[in-house]
Every structure is written in structure tokens, then in C-alpha cells.
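One example given next:
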Amino acid sequence: MKQWLRSITPLAAVLLVAAACGGGGTPSAGGSSAPSAAEDKELVFYSGGDTNVQDLHQKQIIPAFEKATGIKVTFTFLEHGTGAQGIYDRIKAQSDAGKTQWDIDLWESDTGYYTRPDDLFLQVTDKDIANLGKVPKPTLDFVQNKAVPYRGSSVVLAYNSDKVTNPPQTYDQLLDWIKANPGKFAYNEPSTGGSGDAFVIAMLYKYSDYNKYVSQPFSASNEKDWDAAFAALKGLAPSLYGKGTYPKGNAGTLDLLNRGEIWMGTVWSDQSTQALQAGQLPKTVKITQINPAFNGGAAYIGITKKATHKQAAMKYLNFLLEPAQQSLIVTGAMSGYPGIDWQYMPSDARTRFSGADKEYRLWPGGTYGQDMQRLWHEKVAS
């Protein structure tokens, strides 16, 4: 599943995308009022990731967009995101050569590419893409508005409702519950899956200012706050499953829930929802989100700065952020969160993640993530 250096993304999460498309269509699908938008008749879109990402665009979004706008989309998909660096190099080469029109309009990829100092992606606002006004501001701030978040997922709390009638609502309440119910909670080893990462990250945020990680560049001095967090995690270990036994991978926690060996654990929103639908978890297992939430991440699509079909690209992203298309992400096989705020989603979509339909927190990953996992092994697991 996902390793939580994605957070966001900074979810990591991270998707790699490249595609070719061209544009020009009706005003109803676009967010920009620029008159040149009507001239675009094609769009070049590169994307990548798992096959469910390919199916979403190729089988659902693109056909509907082409029908609504008359814009022909040339879509190139790189399975599992392979070749992303090559796509980035291709875009950069056109920039370095001084070309005024680049041959890739939209690119879906890892968030880190969009904010590199090469400055290859267009900074957009709701004046360009009207439906950006429905997107939570933190997910746009995270990439300096140089890409559009259109789906996401987060870590949530899964619990056996037969055993837990009132699940914890905050992280402190969760810690109290774990101590009052020894052996009935588990989180996986952080280096083996993001749902375990998230439990540890929440403890870091308990002892350190969240804003330092999402609004400022990396600073090793912030890690001085972590000693108290790791001490608390070490002290919590005897109350965990197996008195400090950490399952391997995100699926490990789900397996313990399925077998009834634990009553509660941290899991991914999409993975747990898919497992419930497939009958791989008992119906008594429910999901909820604490407040402040566990971290999560978004998948982004960026418009290249010198896109040949810039207005068509804006139209596609605006179309993708309409509640009708966003519902395909939530209620379809992807089981993802919408890119727009939950308040704009229809009730059937919100019902799917009832109790967990809250804005997630972010985690920058990178050096912080590497240091967190290393220090957890040194100070908690040892």
C-alpha cells in the first residue's frame, strides 16, 4: 500500500504522471474566462501509478470530458510511475532550450517535482480554475499552488464496534484507551507502512508545533522536540498488542483486526474501505478520524509553465474537480477522498467515509521521515 513519507503527502503519496492531450471546449467544463480557451482542441496529459488511476482517467474522466468539451485528450500512462524522472528531464530540456511551447500540458507525479527550483509548473488560482475555490487551502499551499490536488487518502482509526462503543475522539483519548485496554491496539512498524508512521507522527505533533513542519523548510533543530515523544512511545509499548509487538506493513494491522486479536488500530482510509467492501474485514469494523486528524496526502496534477494547450489543461482540471467526477473517486474502486472539501460532496459519497470525512494533517516526509523511522527503531523498538 503506501509508505507514509508521502504525506504530502507532502501524503506522501506519491504518484508519477505524464500524458499528452490538447484542448478547446465549452465554457461549462473550464474555470478560466480567457478567450483563447475556446481555441484549444487538444490536450496532452501524462500520468502514472496503479491501474486504478489509469482506469479513472482513461475510462471515466477523459471520455466524459471529451464529450462535454470537444477537446481531444492524448493520454500517456506510465504504470507504477516508472520513468518520472525522464519526463521531468524532458520538460526541463524544453525550458532550458528556451522553447515557448512545451509538448506536455498536464503531468501527474510525485509532489516533489512541482516545487523544484527549476520552476517548471504554472501557479494557479481559482481565477484560472474556478473549482479550486472548493479545494482545502493547505493542500494547495503544500505545493505553492503549482499543482492541483484531485484525490487523497489518510490514516484513520479502525475499531471493532462490538467491543468499542465510543471510540476515542482525540489522540490523548486514544492514548488513554490503549492504556485502559492493554493488548487490544496495534500500529505497524513505521518503516513498513504509512499507517504505522501516522501513529508515531501524531505523537511527534503532540510534543512539537505542527506548523514548523508544514510551513517551514527542514530544520534539524525541530527534532530536539522528539525526545519526549519517543519516550512516550517507549512507555506505551507494554500496553500494545503483544506488549510491544509491531505488525509488518499496513496489511498486518488489518489482519489482526480481521482475526479479532486487536480491537483498534491505525489503517489507511482507502485500504480499509476496500477491505470492508471485499468482505476481508468483518462488518463490525468501523472507521473514524480523531481531531486533530492523522496525516494523509493528496495526488496532484500540474500544468507545465509553457503548456501548448494551457487553457484546455485548466478546463480538464476544473472538470475533474466537479462533484460529479469527484464522486467517481470516492464511490468507485479507488475508494479515495475527494480533492475538494467534503462539504461540496453529495451525501452518498460522504456516507462512505462517515466519521472520517475530515481534513487530514500533512507530514513533509523527506529527511524528517527518514530520521523519524531511524530514531523510532533506536529509541522505541530496541
The chain has a mean pLDDT of 89. Strands lie at 19-23, 42-49, 72-79, 106-109, 148-160, 185-186, 264-268, 285-288, 296-303, 337-338.
